[in-house]
Amino acid sequence: MSRFAPGWGMTLACLVLVPALLALGVWQIERGAEKTRYQDRYLDRIGQPPQAVPASLDGSDFFRVHLTGEYLAGEHYLVDNRVREGRPGYWVVSRFGGDDGRIYLVNRGWLEAPPSREQLPRVATPAGPVRLVGVLWPDMGQPPLLGPDPWAAGWPKRVQRLDLPRMAGGGSSVVPVEVRLEPGVPGVLEAAPLAVDFRPERHRGYAVQWFALAVVLAVGYVMFGLRRS
Q1: How far is it, in rounded angstroms, from Cα 95 to Cα 103?
Q2: Domain boundaries, the chain
Q3: Burial category of 213 from C-beta neighbours within 10 Å (exposed 0-12, middle 13-18, buried 19 and up)
Q4: What is the pLDDT of residue 227?
Q5: How far is CA 42 from CA 35, 180, 222, in A?
C-alpha cells in the first residue's frame, strides 16, 4: 500500500519552481511571436524607397526615411562597450535638427575608442544642411545595467546603453526613436548593422525546454511523494 507524502520542502519547491518554469516558457513564446512580427515588418519594409518620417511613430519599425536638416554641433551620445573586430569603441548617436522642427536621435555607427579610458574620441561632423537616409530601428531588448549610469552635464555624453526615452528627455520636440543611418550618407561612420537574424524559432525551442523542465519537476514530485508505508 502506498501513500502520497512528499514533505513540505518538496511541496514548497514545486509550488515555486513549476509556475516559474511555466512563466518562462510563456515568456519565450511571446518573445518568439514578437520576433516574428519584427521579421515580417523588416522583410516588408527594408527594400522600400525612403519616405518622410511619419507624424505618428506607432508601428513604424524598419521604415526607411529621409531627413533634411543639420547636426547639432557637438551634441553626441557615445554609447559605450561596442566592440568591433576585437576593438573597443562606441556607437555615436548625434542629435539632428530636422527641417520639420523635430530633433532626431541619429545612430551614425561605430567609432574606435582612444587608448586611454579618460579620453573621449573626437567626432567629425558635417556642418550646414545635409540630407540623410536611415531606418527607424526598434528597441528589440537590451541587457540590464549592472550599475548606475550617470551622464555628464555637458556634451558629448558617454552612456552605457541606448536609452532613447532618457535621451529624448521627455521633450515634445525630440523623437524617442533610433534613426540608424545607411552607409554613404553625410556624417555616417562605420555604419551600424542593418541586417538582423531574428530567429523566432530559437525562442520556441527555449519555451519547449522550460515546459519540459516543469513537466519533469512535476512528475518527479509525484514519484518522490509516493512512498511505501
Answers
A1: 6
A2: 2-39+200-228, 48-181
A3: middle
A4: 64
A5: 10, 14, 47
- Written as nine digits, the cell of 183 is 552607409
| Per-residue confidence (pLDDT) for residue 229, from 0 to 100 | 43
pLDDT along the chain (229 residues), means of 10: 72 86 86 77 83 85 93 94 92 95 95 92 94 90 74 91 85 86 95 79 82 86 67
CA–CA distance, 66 with 48 (Å, rounded to integer): 12
Mind giving me the DSSP string for 53-88? PPS--TT-TT-EEEEEEEEEEEEEEEE----BTTB-
Q: Would you state the pLDDT for residue 9?
A: 79
Q: Supply the pTM of this predicted model.
A: 0.74
Burial class from Cβ neighbours inside 10 Å (0-12, 13-18, 19+) for residue 49 reads exposed
Look at the alpha carbons of 104, 105, 110, 112 in this order and tell me if their dihedral is positive or negative.
Answer: positive
The one-letter code for the residue type at 167 is M
The residue written with cell numbers 509550488 in the block is 15
